[in-house]
Amino acid sequence: DPFEPTFKEGDLYGRGSADMKSGLAAMIIALEEFLGEYPDHTGSIALLITSDEEGRARDGTLKVVQALAERDEHIDWCVLGEPSSQESLGDIVRIGRRGSLSGMLTVQGVQGHVAYPQLADNPIRRFAPVLAELHDIVWDDGNEFFPPTSFQVVDVRAGIGAPNVTPGELSARFNFRYSTEWTHESLQEKVESVFNAHDIDYELKWHLSGEPFLTQPGKLINAVHQAVTEYTGAAPELSTGGGTSDGRFISPAGADVVELGPVNASIHKIDEHVKVEDVITLTRMYRRVLELMLL
After folding, report:
1. Exposure class string for 221-254: b at 16+ Cβ within 10 A, else e
2. Pairing between β-strand 99-108 and β-strand 169-178 as defined by DSSP bridges
3. Which residue spans within the chain are E strands per DSSP?
4. Which of 7, 137, 251, 276 could be bridged to 213 by S-S, CB 3.0 to 4.6 A?
5. Which of 99, 83, 174, 106 is nearest to 137 (CA)?
């Protein structure tokens, strides 16, 4: 049952157990312990808990960051409990994320009988060479901190279900996960130049989920690096891979953002789970970060 927390052989099963409710639970306990021992620490601490990061992300962290800016209040350091770890707890720490840009495409044609193609205009035929060209482009080779930009088509639809009728319209959706070698404006211009070089009647709408962001080496990265090393015996890999996170709203406001959380192998899957031992260790890591940052 995804909504009934279940312990089995040292693991906690349940929807969100790894992504990212265990990270939140570990943060709460770490804060409770830290404040109990160090009530006169030098900083101010807040938990930001929102519910729409997996959706359109319009009313959660984004609105909080806007409200803070209006109050002239600033976040200096932010640790996200995203499931950043890959094989074992703390093996990877995210210090940034690629940007995410989606395109919503409509290609117009003329519906017709397959036996009379000269009387129709098949949008699939119009789109096919454009799609092939987009897939053949090497968008970039990445850089010191970011992997190469990726282009993925996630949905293509056309046809009316009849085997002898060519469609009058095609719709498709695609996504870029892009490095700092691009801006969303330059990516859009490049894609539209490819379309415009072909004989195709199209409409293309864009949705920007977030620009790429990167936290430079400094006090926060050093503290997280030390905390992970102390409790695992191994230094973490600093990475910008994976999807997006709410760090895309916090980093542009001037904050250093780092993501440290559980292993992500089961996230968004049936039987999502996390090792109970990892949650306990993660709590200790978060507390150590607080000590290194605020004492």
Report:
1. bebbbebbeeebeeebebbbebebbbbbbbbeee
2. antiparallel
3. 6-8, 11-13, 77-80, 92-94, 96-97, 99-108, 112-113, 150-158, 165-166, 169-178, 202-210, 213-214, 237-239, 256-259, 273-275
4. 251
5. 174
